[in-house]
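Meet today's protein:

…
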Amino acid sequence: MESILAQNPNNVQSTKEDLIDSVLPLLKLICLTVIGLILAYPKTQLVPKATFKLLSKLVFALFLPCLIFIHLGESITVKNFVRWWFIPVNVLISTGIGCVLGLLVAKICKPPPEYFRFTIIMTAFGNTGNLPLAIVVSVCHSPNNPFGPSCNTTGIAYVSFAQWVAVLLVYTLVYHMMEPPYEYYEVVEDGVEIQEEMITTNLSTPLLVEAEWPGMEDRETENCKTPLIARIFGNLSNLSQSSIQETDSIEEGGESGSNTNPRSPKSLRCLAEPRMVRRIRIVAEKTPIRHILQPPILATLLAFFVGMVPPIKSIVYGDDAPLSFITDSLDILAGAMVPSVMLILGGMLAEGPNESRLGMRTTVGIIVARLLVLPLFGIGVVALADKLKVLIPGDQMYTFVLLLQYTTPSAILLGAVASLRGYAVREASALLFWQHIFAVFSLAIYVIIYFKILFSYF
């Protein structure tokens, strides 16, 4: 840290300036959120819920991809791609620490047994996308921001660089951890058929389901609301075996028309496969990883391609680039992303908390662990990374984004996954509501601390 401080002696600011620089961006975001809350307030409903859902689709399919493509593509190079390796790794580290904290919360607070895994998930997986982007854009909005003239472009690029890892985790690890507990179902007809005992109510879909990843519910599969892993790996061998045979028969039936050779490679593979390998294969095939290719991820991949190929980059980016009029147009659209996201968040909070069977003690435990304890571990991880010379010297925005990954509330996307899997939808809605309410105070405290650390030690 001393070497970095020696390179930036002019960045040390007074406590008063730190308070202003750190609090004002959050106040701007709070104002936007309050406006969204007023517009969506149920008693007046100046703007109906359907409009907010349409706005969330615009953010997802248009505004956010434009923002990612413009700023990530302009900043990314082959050299930077290698230099930024710790950003996605930090997402994995924060998730791992969050899982440990979630396990401790579940052991100490003792939620109902069916919400044990839910407690771990909601503690572990934070918002690494829209909210950090909004915070960075708000911090960089002032021309006198402490991160310099390239604050906006580099900050958005750093946050965008982490998004693909978070989405990959959601569509793999989170998807299976949010599997409905086996107790939700009862076995009938000798364990062949499984029927749900507890179905979600007929209430209208909460806005949080559409707030961050619209259209996820449209991607329901045959097994998305069933305890697939419990059926395949559970102790009920008859049920597991029937599930495996049923899945394999479907696969073979789908290929029977195109390959009738009994000694085909597919048949030989199935005959030679050990039972455990076959079970793992079935779970992998039922994982909806193909749905990861959505507009924000496609924009990230396109930004990688254009940004890391200099001849193409010179045509697209820059004031003198032949296609600069296209990037300017996309930049105008990208400017609508942050206000839209905060208005949607306000609309989500206007719905209020749903009834939850999670319990007050567990709810408080998750909030404390996620918003107050995890950021302390984040400071330790980033300080250790600095000692190991992992951070980019002199780049406070890089360090700030790493710290933000430990500070945000649980990802709103978890509410969509809960709805997709038909598990703990009300509990996710209530918990996300209270987390975002208390995050107003925790974010203010930790952003002040981060600014003090960044401009005093880094």
Remarks:
- The chain has 21 helices and two strands.
- The chain has two domains: 2-184+289-457, 225-286.
